[in-house]
Design goal:
disordered C terminus, EFR3_Homologs, ARM-type_fold, mainly alpha, EFR3A protein, two-stranded antiparallel sheet, elongated
């Protein structure tokens, strides 16, 4: 065997400067040379030792051992391969591994492809990866363990190629893996359906084997994604998110035949893959980490009635928001005695982050709010919601955002007290504990003494009179729950007026604290299966100081409770509004940019002309002060204009 290997080695070396170079790479020659080398590489040393000592004891160890000699010859062969003949040298490897059933177990297969990846020229790495993906497609009907073995080989190859460049195969790798993830889930559910009513050992074993395939795919996706440069990683995040099945939308990954259970499995697998890809991702600005086309579909699963899906979404958000590695310090929901001991790392909020919160802050608040109202929440959900609030405070909170977060916390407290959604008592107490833990953290982060004092006083009162409102008690295995929350004293609750009073003295603009937080109703609510506040119309009026209500127009229609009730009950009008909203969104998604820009410019010109006409109106003396309106533009002050003479009342309101 040693003589044969040396002969092959001589032929390979001769191809460098010889006319044989053009023919030795043809498939009929490679199909003989490569399997011969692989066969000798398989032989373990103890088999060789039975033959006796080598005939030439002066030779080195690598020349005495057929396996090592064959490996060196194989490396030399691959190192001489060029762009045109690379595939001819790799394909016989797959045939050998198939013929000798070396994918399960796959130690030798992994070893072979490590040798291949390190021996070939770096720019040809994507050829090998394409060949592995192609072979995975060929063997897609094989046993789960064979497919898992091929995927693990792909993982090793990708791990080596990701350090350099893998060219155009980035999306192909992910697309193929996601396709095989769907196939694996399909096989698993098919086996379960075929064995319904007869739980056999073989079926359960096959299901667990499919889980091995799925875990191998997720591990490969995560490892590959986490080793890509940031610009490619953001594209992969968008690519995976586009494959997640969401109710009411269409995806390129067909799951229609899998049913609800199969769709849920796919959702969980893809979100787990996305969680691994986002791990360690550090964007310079939050808008780069969470662009609108990615944020909207990411938050949609957080409205679904599945606690595991909501947990994965929150963990992905944590990966993207936490740019200073503070999450480990916030693990677990608790009352932190001294936040300064955590040594939180933070930077000054950038203008880009402030702009992001103005655009998307309400969207984040809304999903936290609705996430707290789910009946199937467990301790982990509350822990992740607390971490979400804390990370938002650290990374994205200026004074305006702090006020919004306090409004959100008070609204969460009202969820537990009023209980319009008939939540179980554990959930109500869990929300109360979440609010206590978060306000304790927030008060210490902004370091307003009066605010800290109010929060500390409420927590101390709870520890004595209602410890089930604190996370250390409610999340114990055995906790005595109250029968109702209606009879509790105000000392146990965080009060808006006390908070406003404490923050007002420190320069915060606290006017908005008097406006209760109400989540926005958006079109994405149709994607969820929940029936809650999203099915009603929320009316929110900001009443701020400086608006003198006595100067309002007195000849408008009187707004009464009956009028509001009639407006809310008017289903036809509500449907028209929904349709109008849908058409506007569809237009901005599908219409050409030039058309949208031209229309906006036309409207802007029209608005300018109408305002000019208003200011040029012939003005008569006002009949009475109560029926007039003062128009001010810049430093110029115009006369009072009788309201009933205005030709454009809608512009006056604007």
């Amino acid at each position: 065997r040693i003589a044969g290997i040396r002969g092959i080695q001589g032929v390979v070396r001769k191809t460098v400067n010889d006319e044989l170079r053009a023919t030795i790479w043809e498939p009929q020659h490679m199909d003989k040379i490569v399997p011969s080398l692989l066969f000798n590489m398989q032989k373990i040393e103890d088999i060789d030792s039975r033959i006796g000592p080598p005939s030439s004891p002066t030779g080195g160890e690598k020349e005495e051992n057929p396996a090592l000699l064959a490996e060196n010859c194989f490396r030399e062969l691959l190192g001489r391969a060029t762009y045109g003949n690379m595939n001819n040298a790799v394909r016989p490897v797959f045939a050998h591994l198939d013929h000798h059933r070396l994918w399960d177990p796959n130690e030798f297969a992994v070893s072979c492809f490590k040798i291949i990846m390190y021996s070939i020229q770096a720019q040809y790495s994507h050829h090998v990866i394409q060949e592995i993906l192609g072979h995975l497609d060929v063997r897609k009907r094989d046993s789960p363990r064979v497919r898992a073995g091929i995927i693990q080989v792909l993982l090793e190859a990708v791990a080596i190629a990701a350090k350099g460049s893998i060219g155009p195969t980035v999306l192909e790798v992910f697309n193929t893996l996601l396709k095989h993830l769907r196939i694996s889930v399909d096989f698993e559910l098919g086996d379960r359906r075929s064995s319904a009513g007869s739980a056999t050992f073989s079926t359960s074993s096959k299901e667990s084997d499919e889980r091995i395939v799925q875990n191998a795919i997720i591990q490969t996706i995560g490892f590959f994604g986490s080793n890509l440069p940031d610009y490619q990683r953001s594209e992969i995040m968008m690519f995976i998110m586009g494959k997640v099945p969401v109710l009411g939308t269409s995806q390129s990954l067909d799951t229609s035949h899998l049913g609800d259970l199969g769709t849920r499995r796919i959702q969980i697998m893809l979100l787990r893959s996305l969680l691994m890809v986002t791990s360690g991702y550090k964007a310079t600005t939050i808008s780069n980490a969470l662009p609108a086309p990615f944020l909207d579909p990411l938050l949609s699963p957080s409205l679904m009635e599945d606690s595991e899906l909501r947990q994965l979404v929150l963990e992905i958000l944590h990966n993207l928001i936490d740019r200073h590695d503070n999450r480990a310090k916030l693990r677990g929901i608790r009352i932190i005695p001294d936040v300064s001991d955590l040594k939180i790392k933070r930077d000054k909020i950038s203008r880009q982050d402030v702009s992001f919160m103005k655009k998307h802050g309400q969207q984040l608040y809304r999903h936290i709010y609705l996430g707290c109202k789910e009946e199937d929440n467990v301790q982990k959900n509350f822990e992740l919601l607390f971490t979400s609030l804390a990370l938002t405070t650290i990374e994205l909170a200026n004074e305006e955002v702090v006020i919004d977060l306090i409004r959100l916390a008070i609204a969460l407290q009202d969820i537990a007290i009023i209980n319009e959604d008939n939540l179980p008592m554990f959930n109500r107490c869990g929300v109360m504990a979440l609010v206590a833990a978060y306000l304790n953290f927030l008060s210490q982060m902004i370091a307003v003494p009066a605010f800290c004092q109010h929060v500390s006083k409420v927590i101390e009162t709870r520890s004595v009179e209602a410890s089930y409102f604190l996370p250390e008690t409610i999340f114990k295995d055995k906790c005595d729950l109250p029968k109702s929350l209606e009879k509790h004293e105000k000392d146990l609750f965080f009060l808006t007026n006390k908070i406003a009073e404490s923050l007002g003295g420190s320069g915060y603009s606290v006017e908005r604290l008097s406006v209760p937080y109400v989540p926005q109703v958006t079109d994405e609510d149709r994607l969820s299966r929940r029936k809650s506040i999203v099915d009603t119309v929320s009316l929110q009026v900001d009443i701020l100081p400086g608006n003198n209500t006595e100067d309002k127009i007195d000849n408008t229609e009187e707004i009464t409770f009956e009028a509001l009730k009639k407006a809310i009950d008017n289903n036809g009008l509500e449907e028209q509004e929904k349709e109008k909203r849908r058409l506007v969104i569809e237009k901005f998604q599908k219409a050409p940019f030039e058309e949208i820009a031209a229309q906006c410019e036309t409207k802007a010109n029209l608005l300018h002309d109408r305002l000019a006409q208003i200011l040029e109106l012939t003005i008569r003396p006002p009949p009475s002060p109560s029926g007039t309106m003062t128009i001010t533009a810049g430093h110029a002050h115009y006369h009072s204009v009788p309201v009933y003479e205005m030709k454009f009342p809608d512009l006056c309101v604007y």
